[in-house]
Each structure stands twice: as structure tokens, then as C-alpha cells.
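User: Teach me something about this protein's shape.
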Amino acid sequence: MPLKKFVSWLKGGPKIKDVIYKLEVFTRKLEYQKKQLERESRKNREEAKKYRLRGNTEAAKMYAEHYVRYSKWALATDAYRLRIQGMVVRLRQSESIYDVASTLSGIRSALNGLKGAVNLPDIAQMVEEIDGTMQDFDVAQDVAEAGMERMTVSTEVTSQEVAATISEIDQEIGVETGVKLPSAPSGKIEELEKDIKKLKEEL
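Assistant: First, the predicted structure itself:
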């Protein structure tokens, strides 16, 4: 039976304290990765603004898309980090075999969710390393699958979000130059490009 197998694993496998320690190290690494993603996000937004000022709309849109993507990856990384941290606290407080099994299943689910949401080699490698420690927890999944609450974080980038970013950048340019530019609705990117070029000629 799965429960007997899991109890046997708890007695003979790696100690929960060791697993908790490795998970705590993992969450600290995630926090560092989040900060890296936030920095990359800011860099891409700066590039988008630079190319917008030059009147290169396509380049500005490309960097705006990367800005949105890295921002979402940073948020997703932090969301899963907080999720795993919470379950580590719960793991410390677990008093029954079922509680341990349920928490371990939740952690593995969060790891898989993180790997799917943030498509980066560094994140994938980190997840694989910690997952190697937790691969024996598959037996726990059979015990607690039914009661496990899954978490999903969307990191898809839409054209509307890119357009909204361009619009925000245009407003910033307007404030900095003293001339209010129109917003960036769909189909009017070319008009904005002309406005910016004209503005640059007047400065």
C-alpha cells in the first residue's frame, strides 16, 4: 500500500531536517533569481524607452515585450518562493504522516509549476537539482494527491500589455519633454512614431 511504502521511506530515506535545509537554501536562491529578473526587466524597459525616443517602434515594442515577460517571470518566481516557504513552515509543524505527505506533494507541485511558468535555464537547473532530492516523494503523491491545492501563475505576454507599456513610456517622454503625446491604442503606432520624430526636431 502507498501509505506503508511512504512510512518505510520516512524511516530509511533522507531525514526531513535535511530536506527542509535544502529547501530553505533553494528559496534563498529563488529570491536572488527574482532580483536578477527584476534587473533584467528594468534594463529592457530602458531599452524600449531609448528606441522609442529614436523613433524605432519595432525595437521599442520588442524590448517592451521582454520587459513585460521578465516582470511576470520575477513575480511568478516570488509567488512560488513564498508558496514553498509557507509549506516548509508547515512541514516543520507536521505531526502526522498524512500532513508530511500532503506538504511534500504540495512542494513538488509548486516546483513543477515554477519550472513551467518561468522558462529559463537557470530556474530549470535549480528545480532539477532540488527535485533530485525529492524524487523519492512520488510515494507521498499517492497518499495525499486528493487533498492537494494546486497553484498556477500565468506568465503569458499579450499584445495589449505590450501596447500598454509603450503607452506608459510615451507618457513619460511627454512629461520629460513638456509635450503630451497621445496614448498608444492599436493601429496608431505609426502616428506616434511621427509625433516623436517631429518632437525631436523641435527640441
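Now, about its shape. Residues 194 and 202 are 12 Å apart (CA to CA). The chain has a mean pLDDT of 80. If you'd like, I can walk through any region in more detail.
User: That's plenty for now, thanks!
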